[in-house]
Design goal:
This protein is α/β, with parallel strands linked by helices and about 280 residues long. It is built from six helices and nine strands, in the order H-E-E-E-E-H-E-E-H-E-H-E-H-E-H. The model has no long low-confidence stretch (mean pLDDT about 90). The structure holds 8-iodo-guanine.
C-alpha cells in the first residue's frame, strides 16, 4: 500500500510523493521537523547507534514511495534519533534503493527528497566502495570531495539546470576533519553496477581523476542539491578496486570489512553529526 505506483507514473510530481512521505514520518515519529538526514550504505549499518536516543523506528516499506531493500546487509528501517550533542533531530535512512535494482531513478532519490521535505537542511551520504589508492586498507573512511557520474542518469527531469559546484560542501568536510584530521579525500566515481568494475574500468576511473568506485551516492547528491540541502559524503573503502590488489572481489569480504570498521566509523559519524 505504501509502496504505491505513483512514483512510476510520469505525470506524478515526485516532490509531492516526498511531501506525503514526510507527513507520514512526522505523524509516525511525533517529530514535526527533522534537521539532518543520514543515508547508511554498506558497512555503515550500525554507525548511527552512537548518535543519540532513538525516538522512533519505522519500517521503510510503510512510508509512501519507499521500496523494500533488495540486498542482504542493508536495513529497511527509518529511524528518528535525537542527537545527544545538539538536541537536533536526525532522520536515519537505514537502506537505499540502488539504480541497479531497475526500479527507476525516482526511487533512488526518494529518501533524500523525503528528508528535505521533512525539514532536513543537511544530508550525510555514506557508502561502501572500492578504493584506487593502495594505501587505503579495507575499512578506511574517506571524505568525498567531488564525483564523476558514469551512469548517464540524472534524477532531475526537464530543463532543470542545477549547479554542482562544491556539491560535497567543503564546509562540512572541514567539520569532519576537525573530528579526524587524518581523513583523506577522494573523487567518487559511480558506475551503474551491479557487477563490479573490470580492472580496465578501474584504470579508466583513475585516469579520469577518480579514486573511489561505487554504485550509489552521486545521483542522491544531485537530488539533494536540487532541493537545497548541504551534502557531506563519506565512503568506507571496503575493498581495493578490481586490479589494484591481487585478490578478486567478494560481497562477503565487503561485509566483513564493514563489520571490522564498525566501532571507528560509528564514533566518527556521531562526532561529525554532533557538530553539524
Ligand atoms: I562495497 O569495488 C563496494 N561497492 N562499483 N566497486 C563498485 N562498487 C562497490 C565496490 C567496488 N565495493
Amino acid at each position: 500500500m505504501a509502496d504505491d505506483a505513483r512514483l512510476d507514473d510520469p505525470t506524478t510530481d515526485p516532490l509531492a510523493v516526498a511531501a506525503d512521505a514526510a507527513a507520514y514520518l512526522a505523524e509516525a515519529t511525533g517529530v514535526e521537523q527533522h534537521d539532518v538526514a543520514l543515508v547508511l550504505g554498506s558497512g555503515w549499518g550500525g554507525a548511527a547507534d552512537l548518535l543519540g536516543e532513538t525516538v522512533a523506528e519505522i519500517a521503510a516499506a510503510d512510508v509512501p514511495g519507499f521500496a523494500a531493500p533488495a540486498v542482504v546487509g542493508h536495513v529497511g528501517t527509518i529511524r528518528s534519533i535525537r542527537i545527544a550533542a545538539t538536541g537536533k533531530h536526525a532522520l536515519v535512512l537505514g537502506s537505499r534503493t540502488h539504480l541497479y535494482e531497475g526500479k527507476g531513478v525516482r526511487r533512488v532519490v526518494h529518501g533524500v527528497r523525503t528528508a528535505a521535505a521533512a525539514g532536513c537542511t543537511t544530508v550525510v551520504l555514506t557508502n561502501g566502495c572500492g578504493g584506487l589508492d593502495p594505501s587505503w586498507a579495507p575499512g578506511t573512511p574517506v571524505l568525498i570531495s567531488d564525483h564523476i557520474n558514469l551512469t548517464t542518469v540524472s534524477p532531475l527531469e526537464g530543463a532543470t539546470f542545477v549547479d554542482l559546484t562544491d556539491l560535497y560542501a567543503s564546509r562540512l568536510r572541514d567539520v569532519a576533519r576537525e573530528v579526524d584530521p587524518t581523513l583523506d579525500e577522494g573523487v567518487y566515481v559511480q558506475f551503474r553496477g551491479p557487477h563490479y568494475e573490470t580492472p580496465a574500468e578501474v584504470r579508466m576511473a583513475g585516469v579520469l581523476g577518480g579514486s573511489l568506485v561505487g554504485m550509489s551516492t552521486t545521483i542522491e547528491a544531485i537530488a539533494a542539491r536540487h532541493v537545497g540541502m548541504e551534502v557531506l559524503g563519506i565512503s568506507l573503502v571496503t575493498n581495493l578496486a578490481a586490479g589494484v590488489g591481487a585478490d578478486a572481489l567478494s560481497h562477503e569480504e565487503v561485509l566483513e570489512a564493514g563489520r571490522a570498521a564498525g566501532p571507528r566509523i560509528s564514533r566518527l559519524l556521531a562526532d561529525i553529526v554532533g557538530r553539524i
